[in-house]
Design a protein that fits this description.
The two termini are 25 Å apart. The protein is built from eight helices and two strands. The chain has helices spanning 6-25, 43-62, 67-70, 83-99, 117-139, 147-157, 161-167, 182-189, and strands at 107-110, 113-116.
Length: 194
């Protein structure tokens, strides 16, 4: 994962959170149980997952805690009766943690080992972009992702795309047709057919 200018990364992170949040706000009451491209996940499961990812950021980045210390604090349902508000609070807290003075120079202790906070932020940004596409598909919304976020995510995911499938969290990368656009290439990297 190459050098990143923190301001550019933080801008991309904010844009990815806003993108996902815009789809969350569009979920109709009868869509929470709808399927998504994430095998076995409903719309609610997907939003719960991405919200839970944001909840981890403050204790790991600004709190200096380890995954083991946080434990199962964010297991199960983190959305409660008001998923839109739960998402908004979690996203705001995550972004605030990454933008805290010195945060991007810190090391966080993730399940796979010590990682720079900037790399962690980039990983969560790309994950949020891909899951925004999943959510758009799940609710039948326009799934065209912003070009800048797509390009950022391709650069982030490409070095470890094969490892994503091995983790069991993603399907294996798909072959990319000649002349495919950037969004199709990104989705293929994470095992999704656009």
């Amino acid at each position: 994962m190459g050098e990143r200018r923190p301001d550019t990364l933080l801008d991309q992170h904010a844009k990815a959170l806003e993108l996902f949040g815009a789809y969350v706000r569009r979920i109709a009451d009868d869509q929470w149980g709808a399927p998504t491209p994430c095998t076995g996940w409903t719309v609610r499961d997907l939003v719960n997952h991405v919200t839970g990812e944001q909840l981890w950021v403050p204790p790991l980045v600004t709190g200096g805690r380890t995954v083991e210390e946080v434990g199962d604090a964010y297991s199960g349902d983190v959305l409660g009766a008001d998923p839109d508000t739960a998402w908004g609070l979690a996203a705001a807290a995550a972004h605030a943690a990454f933008t805290a003075p010195g945060a991007m120079e810190r090391t966080v202790r993730l399940s796979y080992g010590p990682t720079g906070a900037a790399a962690y932020c980039a990983e969560l940004t790309a994950d949020c972009v891909v899951h925004a596409w999943d959510l758009a598909r799940g609710i039948g919304a326009d799934d065209r992702l912003p070009d800048g976020l797509v390009e950022f995510s391709i650069k982030e995911v490409m070095p470890y795309a094969d490892g994503l499938a091995a983790s069991g969290a993603f399907a294996p990368p798909l072959d990319v047709p000649a002349g495919a656009d950037a969004q199709t290439r990104l989705l293929a990297l994470v095992g999704r057919a656009g």
